Amino acid sequence: MKTAIYKFLGGTAFAGTMLAVCSTPAAAQEARNVILFLGDAGGLSTLSAAGILANDRPQSLFIQSMPNVALSDTSALDRWVTDSAAGMTAIMTGHKTNNAMVSTTPSGPGGRAMPVKTLLEYAEQRGLSTGVVTNMNIWDATPAATFAHVAARADKGEIFRQMLKPRFGDGVDILIGKGRADAVATFAGPGTSAEQAFRTAGYRFGEDTALVGQAPRTAVLRDADFAPLPAVEATVAQLARNPKGYFLMVEWDMHTDDPKAGLRHVVEMDDMIRRISAVAGKDTLILFTADHSFGLRMTGGKRTTPLATQYDPDAKSVISVEPGHTGEEVVVAASGPGADKVRGFMPNTRLFDIMLSAFGWKKDK
Hints:
This protein is an alpha/beta fold.
């Protein structure tokens, strides 16, 4: 019966005994590495439904076993309900901003967009390795907020340009995501191409995630899905070769406009976090959070029957979805050095402070 539930979700949900996650006291050591797992639209109701569908019991996700937990406000500077651009900007820079703005704030003359430094840029400035992995477009709001600064999230041409001409260091070392066709269109022109542009910037460029193991600077852009766990494991192994440490952001789309796909993605990311928690080392701060929640609710179901056999996406008698972002708090779960600061209710901007502090760094004046 469990196998049927796993096949329903199309994932590899963890069916065995849940591994305990040890929390490292803040006083013991600073983090050498920080990994931020970002469930895009992965609110509490979505996590709960995905775990019960996968394992037929509540609180069965690995995320739900992580030892340090908080609830994070997700509001934008100008709206109670955020989009991914403003939500991720707050997490990566410690600054609230308006919806659609990517790592910029409307603080210039006349509300002009001004760039604000991201945690990834702090890491690049200090010689750490950096990575961004997403199952969405590499230029989309969440990944872009780690390295780019634009007034409008739709400005993908400028986001690609900043990707290859960073303000600090040599830019993101490992890039994995979708949007290959967009890159091809952006860099098309006389005597140039996407492959040439990325190679000139020092990247091994291609569509196969296996390339990550072959070069320290790799850009894997695709227009199709890829196996998440091998890609993330290879990225961690490559980044870990830097003795100074690394920062990695992994985004996985959990929007439930298509409930079956969104809930399957929850299980996929949960598998990633479980595996990486086992191999990343005790000097790694691991965080999971969402940029915003979504209008999914569990509305029924009998405990005596597997939920997957009761669930009909069209009937809405077990799980209902009102498509759209919602404004309630989302969970933050953490383990490793600095995880003890994840507690209580907090603004999403505090996540930046927690990650910066875990590295032992001070915010620029």
